[in-house]
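Recall the central idea of this unit: under ordinary conditions, the amino acid sequence of a chain determines the structure it adopts. In this exercise we apply that idea directly, starting from the sequence alone.
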Amino acid sequence: MNKIFRINMSNLTTKCESVPEEWAGLGGRGLTSTIVAAEVPPRCHPLGPNNKLVFAPGLLTGTPAAQSGRLSAGAKSPLTGTIKESNAGGTAAQQLARMGIKAIIIEGAPTEDKWYRLHITMDGITFEAADSLVGKQNFAIIDEMIDTFGPKIGVLSIGVPGEMRMCAANISVKDPDQKIRSHGRGGLGAVMGSKKIKCITIDDTGASKVPIADPDKFRAAAKIFAKSLLDHPVSGEGLPTYGTNILINILNEAGGLPTKNFRYGQCEHHEKISGETMHDTIVERGGKHKHGCHAGCIIQCSQVYVDRAGGYITSGFEYETIWGLGANAMIEDLDDIAKCDNLMDDIGIDSIEGAVLLATAMEAGVIPWGDGKECQRVLRDEIGKGTPLGRILGNGTGMVGTAYGLVRVPVVKNQGIPAYDPRSVKGIGITYATSTMGADHTAGYTIATNILKVGGYVDPLTKDGQVELSRNLQIATAAVDSTGMCVFIAFPALDIPESFTALIDLLNATYGLDLTADDVTELGKKILKIEHDFNTAAGFSKQDDRLPEFFSYEPIPPHNAVWDFTDEEIDEFWDF
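Accordingly, the structure predicted from this sequence is:
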């Protein structure tokens, strides 16, 4: 990957640049965050012309290495006001990598009220009129692009909430089955909408393979790496069988399954929405209980969820979405939850923020608790059409809480808190508080060690060791996010020494380097510090690294735990 495309939406020009030496060793999150930190004024308006939207494949994306098909998107977030990186599967990352494109930097904003489609080929990038796509949602756009260019076309698009620059809007990515994966968190769809880009199409005709400096070493490392993924009980057995939704029953048992807008840690109807029930339902109806989000995925934690007649409802049906609608919003019917997931894919909003904001709207009395049909209507007819109510909801959980005068509003840096209660799983609370991205479980997934006992065990109900655990995982995750690898490679990497060694060997074999484990750790530290410095310059302080107050005075059953870290204890996170 030796090309960087810079797209100026103010004067509708493109420029192909060579890769600066200081960016040569970066990819994925490491590259998007470095570019945003270097080129975006920290205090700029996220939807103004000075913000930039950056796409970057990972360092290993496009190679035959398993799980390496992730694309990073970065910008200043309109939801959090912080730096943001969100990565997704789909086909775009591998296409861009094979085309030799290391990054795409989109800057400026059109002066005229016109919409555009960017078309990327081996000859460059062109601006195409896209006014006919305005008002369309993601599935219709993908279908139209397939009809125009054929099934191999890569597509990134936004729905109506992205056009309207709602802060929960995501960027959708076409997957190998012509469905959708998402750059979900942080409202990057609104940034794409602010650039008046409705859609990006990628035609990689003529692209060659990603060059590998030492093919023999690469093949040997790839074999060890893939074997470790399949040998580990989580990545090789649990996730392929039940998907990420295997966590419903596990978190319920641990008392860490946030229920009815974070009132309780256990949910009475957990069996109805569990991974085991979902698996049996899919098998009985003839769907797919294992499925990959990109070529080369061998974990296959995704699935295709179908209705009683075998018709498609949704895919990529994740634990966090099912938790948010099923336990936190009290919807008991898995079909209703699946239909909401499909609607969020179609209109293009983050399914975590979407689920949390719907539960918050129930707290406000806007939607009855557990009413899955009304949630579908609100998603389709309010948020999806941008009505006044839809615009309040579509701007995220924090906006809903403010609009309706609520106190129990589960956000950190204005981003909705995901599916693990920080009072009864304290390590993840440190991650929510200190992540440079706002509340983000993937930033430092302590559930692995606190609950699944991967990489050792730290008691989730005590404070001991949680700051160090979160710090180490956030450093490692920042590095993994730079490789283009799925975050679930962390399970074998934490337990099987050969797995982590093989990952480093893959990098060395691809680029002819001699990296060590310490080099990878230093890369993770450097990324976190770059992101933290950006946020500080944007006006954030230690006081923003805090959880909502209600966690400190509302004990959560069954453990009756509260959030009891002092400010000084939380601030120790940045002592590295």
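The domain at 3-202 is CATH 3.60.9.10 (Aldehyde Ferredoxin Oxidoreductase;  A, domain 1).
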